[in-house]
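To whoever picks this up:

The nightly regression suite flagged Probable cysteine--tRNA ligase, mitochondrial as changed. Nothing in the input moved, so I suspect the structure step. Input below, exactly as stored in the fixture:
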Amino acid sequence: MAMRLASALILNSGFRIRREIHSGVTKTSLLCRRTACSRTERGWVKPVGFDTGVTAYNSLTKKKEPLILSQEKIATWYSCGPTVYDHAHLGHACSYVRFDILQRILSRLFGINVIHVMVITDIDDKIIQRSLEENISPITLARMHEEEFKKDMLALRVLPPVVYMRVTENIPQIIAFIERIIGNGHAYVTSQGNVYFNTKSISHRYGKLVNLGGNAGEQGVQDKENSRDFALWKASKPFEPYWESPWGQGRPGWHIECSTIASSVFGHQLDIHSGGIDLAFPHHENEIAQSEAYHQCEQWGNYFLHSGHLHLKGSVEKMSKSLKNYVTIKDFLASYTANEFRLFCLLTKYRSAIDYSDASMNEAQSTLSTISAFFHNAQAYMQGHMQCQPVEEGFLWERLSNTQTSVHKMLADDFDTPKAVDAIMSLIYHGNCQLQPATKVDGPRSPAVFGAIMSYVMEIMSVFGVDLSDKTEVQVSSGVLNNVVEELVHFRSEVRKFALSVEDQAPQESQTGNKNQKRHHQPDRLHLRLLKACDALRNNLAPLGVHIKDRGTNSTWEITKAETRK
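Regenerated output under the current build:
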């Protein structure tokens, strides 16, 4: 379905552009013109289209803006993918997971079909350098790390884009894109075979994301006309991969690949562009310049969303390969789960910097444990295994309704996941307050409200990509082993009931006279030993992921991930 929609978008976009040119009609909603833009300011043009009811912080305006889409219920979304020369680390994971959460919210909560395209940079200076160091071809190196990246994303439950696009498979399109920019008067070819974008040609608009000031830069740097000019095409060097072009042998510059590929799929206008804040300049700034020069339009991308950096606790620098201060995704998942990492990301705003530490991961684990404990107790209550005093049912129904309204409102306000999680945990807190065990119960039971709360929490966490019902993360989850645990807990319960019954009888019998004390001394010691053995079994099973809870003379159990934290 998504693939068909993407194809329809491409065809429809191209048709509308041709129809506009043929009829000579210029529409504000399309913003596309055959002549250079007449605007002299860097102002953002509010899109004409369909209001989603969501506000998002737009890096183009440095404030929250209503999210308006060109087509109803369809969001075109482009993101910069990895440069595949090394292992992906948690800094990458944080950005991709955060934007995956945003896309899930738009899709699941607001009914928007997100058409997401991501580029894989599989030719680059870093790839070439690493391939020389490892004595393998750049393409082989890139394919190895591309597959590893996709596996990492799958393990973190990041939904794949509609399509991955590789740079090396789009070289003809990139060359044609550059040719048109040159033809429009925004780029030049040097005697060395390089092609540079002429930033002076759009100096009145260059710097939409970052205010560059009035200084136009130095003249005569290398073979560039201006220090701010950037490469669209790089002349080849000895022993480097190259492609034939009108300007000689070479390869694409870094920024041109994204402009070309995004335009080849979505045409002259893009709803949303995302990436880490470190990409805002120069990468995204240069993408904007190239795309608007190519399409001769005033506004190519309507919304630019940027995620904050991930830092190691105590470090002011972002996690990066160049600083060698990173943790690979594979190493991280050896100690933690995808659910825990997603909770870690949810507890801060996607735009904020985030500290990675044992303490921050413990907070995420604690949040998940609290939810799990509530689910276990609520299920025990619903099944009749846990007796409680009468529940304030009307109060809980009201809390549930208020939480649903609040969470929806918070997520519509620039995807405020920390506040949403707080609201969910407040609901769980009030649910736990009502689940107080009692030995003697007078009054009706209220299982339905707890079922409704559980259903909502599971659903909203699923929107975030946190699967509370996922058994793949459970170390012991096969049907056979479940039955073994069931029999083990049942046997323990029978032994424990017997020991408790002896304990209840022993004091009464000991009052019958001194001559009977010796006879009852041995059973007293026996029941204490049995109770001690039952407790030992419960405690020993807990680190293995089997948790037994004694509720009077009854016992319940659940299986969770074995405690193997570092």
